[in-house]
Structures are given as C-alpha cells and as structure tokens.
Amino acid sequence: MRIEALEVRHLKVPLAPPLGGSAARPAQPFRGLLVIAAHGEGGCIGYGESYGTPASVAAIVEEVLAPVVLGRDALDVEVLWHEMYRKIGYHGPGGIMLEALSGLDLALWDLKGKALNAPASVLLGGYRPRIEVYAASIYLDQPAAMAEQARRFAELGWPAMKLKVGEDAERDLAAVAAVRSAVSPPIKVMVDANGAYDRRTAIRVGRQLDKLGIAWLEEPVATQDFEGYARVAEALDLPIAGGEGHYTRWGFRDLIQRGQVDVLQPDLTRCGGLSEARAIAWMGSAHGRSFSPHCWSSVFGLAAAVQLASAAPNTLNVEYDAHPNPIKERLLGPQLTPEAGVLDVPTAPGLGIEVDTQAMEQMTVARKLIAPPSASRQKTA
C-alpha cells in the first residue's frame, strides 16, 4: 500500500458550559482534535491524532516527516518509524516533534490494517475481546459537587472513576473523602494530581489516600522529577501511576528504573505512536508494571490505545473521557462507547473504526494537504 499523500486537519467545536479542569489545566471552552491522515492507493485513508499544536505539527509533517514516508509502503510502518525518529532525534527526547511523529504513526497503522484487512490488535500479535475502561474525570470543584459527579458516574454503571486534586492538600483530602463516601467499594476511585504536589505533600496526601482505599495516585510530582517519583513510591504502599507527559521507551525506562512508577500511562498521540507504545507496554511487562494508556479528549488515540490494550499482556485498564465530546460523537456515533465500564475491542480493519467524513469536513477549521511535488503539479494542471 503506497503512501500517496498526507493531510493535517484541525477540528474544533465550542462547548457550553466549558469542560472542568484540574490544578494544571484550566477549564476548556471547546473540544479540539488534531488529525493526521495518510492517503494510500485506491482512496484508502488511515487516520491518526497528534497531541501537538496545529500549525507546528503541520509544518513538521510537511517539512520533516513527509519526505521520509511519501511514496513508501505503509506495511513498513515500523521501519518508517525508525527512519522518522532518526530525522527528529537531534531535536531532543520528546516534545512536539514526537507528537507529530505519533499522529502519523497512528495513521500508518490504520492504513496498514486496512491494506491487510485486519485490526491492529491482530497485527500486534494478540487479541483480548474486551477492555476495562474507567471514567475520567471528576474535575476540581467543591467537595459536595465532586461527590455528586461521582454518584452520577456510579448511576451510569461506571465501576471505576478518577478525580482531580492538586490545589490544596486539606481541600483535596476532603474532596476525596466525600467522593469515597458517595461511592463505596467495589467501585474503584483513582486520584490524579497532574504533577501539582511537591514530594513531601504527595507523601502526606498519599498516606491518607491509602487509608481511604484509593486505587492509585497519578502524577504526584512534576513530570521530570524522577527522584521525587521514587521518594513517593518508596514511602507509600499505594500504587503510583504516571507517564502521560513522557516520551519513547527510553523515557519510560527512566520512569520505571529511576521513578519506580507502578502503572505506566503513555499517551499514544505523543509518546511515539502505536509503534513506540507497544515497546513501552512490553518493557513494562518485563518489569512487572501495569499498562493503562492515557486517552483524555481523544478519538483516534483512544481507538489505537484500545487496540494495543487488547494485545498487551500487562493491560490494567484504559482511560475513557466520560464527559460530552461532540467531535467524537459526530465522527464515530456509537462506536467506542463502553457499557458498564467495559469496551468491546473493534474488529474492523486498522484502528477498527469508521469515520463520518462529512462530519469531519463540517468541524474542520484548518486543513493542509501534503503530496509529492509531481502529484501537486498534476493536480494544479
């Protein structure tokens, strides 16, 4: 399946009211999606998604990555990953270069699966038909309001949910206690600080969270504070989760060895794509770590994460954005919708989803088509 063109689209839909935030992220007044598409022969299209910013990702795809992949065979997706990585490796261990590569890698896996008429889960060497997902998230608010959101999630049948903390330790503990009172075991509750605590506060809060029966403490300290992660992990019996802000297998090697994190949470739209997330998951398995990919406000990244989770031997669960997302709803309809916290792994080719291209056009606010020079001249003539 020859790769004939690439495309970068920015989709955007306003939200009213804004979507609640965390200590690290303000409330969002819109939903956005940065799509990277790979066009193959015969009109076949593979779709991916990047975490990066639209204009920067479009420039990187056009100037750096397109010369590597255009005209190549999509079946060689992992060969292409290494060639793209060699092109961007000197720009640093992560950041927007990796985020652009990630989105394109997802698109190539989707295209490869469609060319071979097989879902990515099968191409990855395994198949688990159902995946546990948890509701994300209960956003920062007054403890009573957070407890009410927890009750709503429980009434919808969610067996696990995550809440945000990180503004103030005492207020955070009051909120967690209120949520834990509102939803009792066997419903699981996870806590996410988004890196807002220093290590002393994280340990103090973590000891109380353990008494409340919390399933894990996520991102207790700043993303690159590996020593802080290790100090927190050593002080607590409570499992520590992290990784949404980390890149490549080498970054996760440090998170495992230096940070002693128990639950690995790569985001497939930024860590290096499906190719690299597979390496991360399998490396985690060898070190006794669980795999739970980060998928907040995601569409194609979520689809890819579910495909990988179905094959990874150490899958624990997958994050699922449980709040309204008109982009996902309009693009996919009922696809990738869980029931009682369980998601059936799609079995269609590639990432397993069918896209409403008309809805995509309607939500597109910017688009860049990247084709070989000869193809561009032919289209212009």
Tally of discrete structural domains = 2
* Discrete helix count: 14
Strand content: 15-25%
CATH topology of the largest domain: TIM Barrel
List its salient traits.
14 helices; 381 residues; Enolase-like, domain 1; 20% strand; 13 strands; 4-stranded antiparallel beta sheet; alpha/beta; single chain
How are the SSEs ordered, and which strands pair?
Blueprint: E1 3-19, E2 28-40, E3 45-50, H1 54-69, H2 77-88, H3 96-116, H4 120-123, E4 130-138, H5 143-155, E5 160-164, H6 169-182, E6 188-192, H7 199-211, E7 217-218, H8 226-235, E8 240-242, H9 248-257, E9 263-264, H10 273-286, E10 290-291, H11 300-309, E11 318-321, H12 326-332, E12 342-344, H13 357-363, E13 364-370, H14 373-380
Parallel strand pairs: 4-5, 4-11, 5-6, 6-7, 7-8, 8-9, 9-10
Antiparallel strand pairs: 1-2, 1-13, 2-3, 4-12
Helix pairs in contact: 1-2, 1-3, 2-3, 5-6, 6-7, 7-8, 9-10
Short description:
With 381 residues, this protein is an alpha/beta fold. 42% of the residues lie in helices and 20% in strands.
What does this protein structure show overall?
With 381 residues, the protein is of the alpha/beta class. It has 2 domains: 3-119 and 355-380, Enolase-like, N-terminal domain (Enolase-like, domain 1, 2-Layer Sandwich), CATH 3.30.390.10; 122-344, TIM Barrel. It is 42% helix and 20% strand. The protein contains 14 helices and 13 strands. The chain has helices at 54-69, 77-88, 96-116, 120-123, 143-155, 169-182, 199-211, 226-235, 248-257, 273-286, 300-309, 326-332, 357-363, 373-380; strands at residues 3-19, 28-40, 45-50, 130-138, 160-164, 188-192, 217-218, 240-242, 263-264, 290-291, 318-321, 342-344, 364-370. Strands 4, 5, 6, 7, 8, 9, 10, 11 and 12 form a 9-stranded mixed sheet that branches. Strands 3-2-1-13 form a 4-stranded antiparallel sheet. Helix 1 (54-69) packs across helix 3. The radius of gyration is 20 Å and the shape is globular. The two termini are 26 Å apart.
